[in-house]
Amino acid sequence: MKVSIIGTNGFLSIAIAKYCNMELWALDMYGLNKPQGHDYDNFYKVNLLADELEYIELIKSDIIIYASGAGIQHNLHEGSSLIYSLNVTIPVTICNKLKANDYKGIFVSFGSVFEIGQTIEHRLFTEEDIETSSCKAPNDYTISKRMLTRFISSYKHTFTHWHFIIPTIYGEGENSLRLIPYTINSIRKGYPLKFTSGEQIRQYIYVNEVPKLIHLSYIKALQDGIYNIGGNEVLSVKEIVFLIHRIKNKEMPHDCFGIIERVDADMQYLALDSSKLYNAIGFNSSIKMSDIISKY
C-alpha cells in the first residue's frame, strides 16, 4: 500500500501519517514544511499556493489524501484568500489534474459539519442536508467547505473519491487554543476561564479514529461518494468543561460562561447522521472523550 498525504504537520494529517507508519505502508508527504513526529519515505516540498504538485509521482499512490486547509481555528486569523485557496481552489484543481492524468486510485478529501450553518434544529443531519443547506453561513470557513462539497457532489471523475464530512475532531496534540487543551492548560496554570454561553452543542470524534475509518473503507471497497463520519458523543461546551473539571478533581467556576462571543455560537447544534457509512462498511465511532482527556 502506498499513501500520499497533501498537507504536512496538521492535526489530522499527523494522525493519518502515524497510522500509516503503524501499518507499515509506504508514505509520501507533500507540503511546505518538513513533516514532524512520524516517518515517511519521501517528502516533496511544495507551496500549494504557488507550486505544481508532482503528479507523475502522486498518481502512483493507492490512496491520496488531501489534508490541508484553513479557517477552522478562528484564533489564527487566516485571511479569506488563504481560506478559499486551500479549502476550494486547490482541491478542485487537484481533482481535475487527477482526471487529466488518468488516476485510477482513491482520492480522499474532508468536509465539515459546520457546513450546516446557523440552525436551531436538534437532530442528526444527513449527507443531503449538508449538500443542500441554505442556513446562514457565519464565516468564510463554512462557505468554503460548502463550495468544495457541492463541487464534489457534481463533478465527473473516473477514480474513486471519498469525501468524508467530519464532526469536531479532538485528541492529544491539537492546537492549544482549542476548547479541551485551553481548558486543561488554564486549570493547570490557574488562569481564569472565559467561554461563550457554553450552550452550543457539537458532535465529537477522536482524531485517531479517522485513519482507521479510511483503512476500513479500503478493506470494504467503499463506493465513490460523500459520507458523514459520526462521532459517538454529542456534548455542549458546558458539559465538556464540567467533564474536564471532574476528571481533574477540580471545582468548576460558575462565572466563566457568557464572557466572550464567537461567530459559531449561533450554530447551536451540529451533529451528523452516519447511517449511510455504517450501512456501507459497518463503521461506528467507539472511543469516549473521558478516556482521552488524561492523554493531553
Characterise this structure.
With 296 residues, the protein is an alpha/beta fold. The chain has a domain at 69-170 and 204-231 and 273-285: Rossmann fold, CATH 3.40.50. The protein is 32% helix and 18% strand. The strands form 2 sheets. It has a 7-stranded parallel sheet with strand order 3-2-1-4-5-6-9, sandwiched between helices. Strand 1, helix 1 and strand 2 form a beta-alpha-beta unit. Helix 3 (80-100) runs parallel beside helix 5 (140-152). It is globular and about 60 Å long. The two termini are 31 Å apart. The model has no long low-confidence stretch (mean pLDDT 95).
Task: List descriptors.
single chain; 296 residues; alpha/beta; Rossmann fold; 7-stranded parallel sheet; 4-stranded mixed sheet; 9 helices
How are the SSEs ordered, and which strands pair?
Elements: E1 2-6, H1 11-22, E2 26-31, E3 42-45, H2 55-58, E4 63-66, H3 80-100, E5 106-112, H4 127-132, H5 140-152, E6 160-166, E7 168-170, H6 179-189, E8 201-206, H7 209-219, E9 225-228, E10 233-236, H8 237-247, E11 269-270, H9 275-281
Parallel strand pairs: 1-2, 1-4, 2-3, 4-5, 5-6, 6-9, 7-8, 8-11
Antiparallel strand pairs: 8-10
Helix pairs in contact: 3-5, 6-8
